[in-house]
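Hi, does anyone understand the following?
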Amino acid sequence: MKSVAWVTDSTCTVDPIYAKENHIYIVPLRLMIGEECYRETIDITADEFYEKMKTHEKVGSSQPPIGEFLELYENLKQNYDEIIAIHCSSELSGTMNTSLQAAEMAEIEVTSIDSKAGAFPLREMIMKGVQWHKMGQSVHEIKEKIEQMAHNVAFYVIPTSMQQLHRSGRVSGTQLLVSQLLRIHLLLKFDKGKVIVEDKIRTFKKTKQRMMDHLKSDIGRIKEVCIMHANNLDEAKEIEQEISIMDPALKTEIMTFIPVVGILAGEGTVALSWIRN
C-alpha cells in the first residue's frame, strides 16, 4: 500500500494527536487581534481567541503564507508516495490556491480536494479518508468519495454580527440596513462552497426553529449532528437538548467554532452541520 500524507489547514479541527498518528499535516491560518498576530491552534486556542475578542475591536484573519506550505511540501516529497491536499472552501478562502501554488513550486504532484466547507465537515472528510486509505482504497477512489461527502453536507449558521458579514461582502448594505431597522435574524447556509442567505426571520427563536426544521427533514439519513458555537456554550447545550427530544438516538457533538467564523459572524453565533448518508 502506498504511503499517503494529508495536507490541510487549521479550520479542519482535527485533534493534533490523531493528526500526528495518521500523517495529517495542519498548516495554521493567521489570526490578528489588535496589533498581534497568532498562528491558529498553535499560539492561541479558539476559546482564548474569543476571550481576547471581547476586549479588541480590531480582529481579523488571513490564509497561511505560501512559504509555510512550500517548506512542508519540500519535506513531504521525500517521505511519501502520494499527497492529498484538502482545505476549507475555496469560495471563502485563498488557502487552497496558495497550497497548490506551493506544491507546484516544490515540483510535487498532489491530489487536491475542495471540502466546500470547514470545521466539522472538513474534519469528517479527512477522518473518513484516512479510514478508506487503511482499507486499501486508492487516492483516486478516496477523492471521489470525499467529493460525494461534500455534496451531502448540510451546514446552517445563525450569525450575531451583521456588521462583520457586511464588511466581508457576504451581506449587502441594503440587507444590513433592513436587518437593523426590522431587527431581522439571518439563517445562512453553505451552498456549493459559498455562504448564502437562506432565510430572514424576525426573532432568534423562530430562526433557530427553522434551522431545526432543516435538521428534522434529514432525520433518518444521518447518524450525527455537530452543534457549533462562537463562545455561546449555553445556547449550544440548549440546542443539544432540543435535538435529543427530537431524536434520542441521534449522536450529537458540541464544538467551539473556528475563530474565523467568529470574526465574520460575531461572538455568540451558533450553527448546525451534518452529513447525509
The longest helix spans residues 119-134.
